[in-house]
Fold this protein.
Amino acid sequence: MANSLTGLTGVAKLVAVMNQLRSPGGCPWDAEQTHHSLLEYLLEESHELIDAIASGNRDDIREELGDVLLQVVFHARIAQEHETDPFDLAEIAELTANKLISRHPHVFGDETAQTAQDVEAIWHEKKKIEKNRASLLDGIPRTLPALMLATKMLKRTKHLEIPGTTALPTDFTDSLDSAERIGELLFEVVRIARAQKIDPEAALRAAIREYEVKVTAVEAKDLT
């Protein structure tokens, strides 16, 4: 094994190691893994990276980024072995690079973007065209935790005027001027929900579904 890795460094070395682990005579455990069996590890490593970033520990961030990269390389190797539709890490990287070029016409093309908001608008418009999506909400995984799902939906639709949304009193919203205050409010909402024997996650998902119906109606109206 050592000889086959001589002179290799970085990503090329990681790919070579994974290739040997998956090849005959390699590791029995690695050889039997599938896209589905690795999902729990992808989720776990992603959360560990989030924790490392939150902690600010550079050594932990470096290590956890490597663990997430390992998951990508592992899945790419499994994909390479597919009988009818194989693809590898190089093809994945090429596809991603081309996607970035397409979605940054203000850098690689003739369009102009002065602010981060302009860039975000271009990104979502390009993505909508590429994916042939009918709604701004298409492509958002509905399996996300409810709070993250609500945040993504509101971010995507921030330029739309959605009727029937609850407007909170200004003096109340002005008091929510820090992450600490927002966190306290969210925690209190959860506490109230528990006291009322209401699942806060389910309640928020129900509200999200109602919001999605309103967004769809607005988008349909804009098309007519």
Notes: The chain has eleven helices and no strands. The CA atoms of residues 21 and 195 lie 52 Å apart. The chain has a mean pLDDT of 90.
